[in-house]
Design goal:
It is globular, with a radius of gyration of 20 Å. The N and C termini lie close together (12 Å). Helix 1 packs antiparallel against helix 9, helix 2 packs antiparallel against helix 10 and helix 4 packs across helix 12. The chain has 345 residues and is of the alpha/beta class.
């Protein structure tokens, strides 16, 4: 992978040298979280800096957090497609049923707890099944985060029965289906709405990563944080980092080559690794503030996995009814996850 990256970069540098006085490009990329959270800190900004450095300043990537250029987080894909912004961070699951095949990667216990491993799998799955779905944008990377954690007010959940009646925020359809199966009342909402929903008592808690916890002030708004046992994530979330297709195709060949040199598997793993780095920081900060850090027992995790199997079986049947081969999608997702175990640096 490193040799491929070096070769692509060398080609980009060579092309750039031949047109040193060529077109300059400013790209406006937007996302919906704090610039201090993990992905902007450890992936987006370094990626933008890398693009600028490798283009000798001919490409500048401006990052706009908190949807500063307009729109709402669920509309991000359309903002990129329509050219309202040049690029940005997209959670396809924020538009339920629009990109159903992507949900295979988000099913319960599908991925490992390594965001980097899960992201390598996500890129492979995207290449196999999703490029047609995203044909009206230019996909730079596809990635996942690390383990999804249950954060709530009050003591940590210890058993399946503890989920009963809890109003819990979920980020995607597979996550909310699992929460419902566990007896909770799931409330789907984008991440920017989560802190206010907690502070107003709209939800008792929710599922999200360790790395997002500090920027959402979950040390103040919740009391406990619970992971499942084992090396598989309770749930995961699928993201793409994408550009407007016309903007990408309208760039000079040498500048497009620099974007290409920082795309694909390498960029996807980089984005996943950013979440892994942030997870360590976030967990430590929650613990340092005195919040309860907990993990479910193996026995209770196995009970949750059984509920997860029900969610997956129902999802396969639903996909079959829509004309997809649900079982084939699940098998393919499982295969790419298995193939990338141990790939993380």
């Amino acid at each position: 992978m490193h040799l491929i990256k070096q070769a692509a970069f060398a080609a980009a540098v060579t092309l750039s040298a031949t047109s040193a006085f060529g077109q300059e490009v400013t790209l406006r990329f937007q996302h919906f979280v704090s610039p201090a959270s993990a992905n902007p800190t450890y992936f987006m900004q370094p990626w933008a800096d890398m693009i600028e450095e490798q283009s000798n300043g001919r490409i500048k990537v401006e990052l706009y957090p908190f949807m500063q250029l307009g729109g709402a987080a669920p509309s991000q894909y359309d903002l990129i497609r329509d050219g309202a912004i040049d690029g940005g961070w997209v959670i396809p699951g924020y538009q339920p049923n629009r990109f159903p095949e992507a949900e295979a990667m988000e099913l319960p216990f599908m991925t490992t707890k390594s965001g980097e491993e899960a992201s390598a799998a996500a890129w492979e799955f995207t290449q196999q099944f999703l490029m047609d779905d995203f044909a009206d944008v230019h996909v730079i990377a596809a990635h996942m985060h690390g383990p999804g954690i249950v954060h709530k007010r009050g003591p940590a959940v210890e058993t399946v029965e503890d989920f009963a009646g809890l109003k819990l925020r979920g980020p995607s359809r597979p996550a909310t289906l699992l929460l419902e199966q566990l007896g909770a009342t799931p409330i789907g909402m984008p991440v920017p709405q989560f802190p206010e929903a907690l502070s107003k008592g709209v939800v008792d808690g929710g599922v999200i990563t360790w790395e997002m916890s500090p920027s959402l002030k979950l040390n103040e708004l919740t009391d406990s944080h619970t992971d499942v046992a084992g090396d598989r994530a309770l749930y995961n979330l699928y993201f793409i980092w994408a550009m407007n297709k016309d903007v990408y195709e309208g760039m000079p060949d040498d500048l497009r080559a620099i974007i290409d040199a920082n795309s694909g598997l390498m960029a996807s793993m980089w984005a996943g690794r950013a979440h892994d780095t942030g997870d360590v920081v976030g967990r430590d900060l929650m613990a340092a503030d005195g919040n309860q850090i907990a993990a479910l027992s193996v026995a209770e995790t196995d009970r949750i996995k059984a509920h997860g199997d029900t969610v997956t079986a129902n999802w396969i049947a639903e996909m079959d009814a829509k004309g997809y081969d649900g079982a084939a999608l699940v098998s393919a997702a499982q295969a790419v996850v298995a193939a990338n175990i141990g790939i993380a640096n």
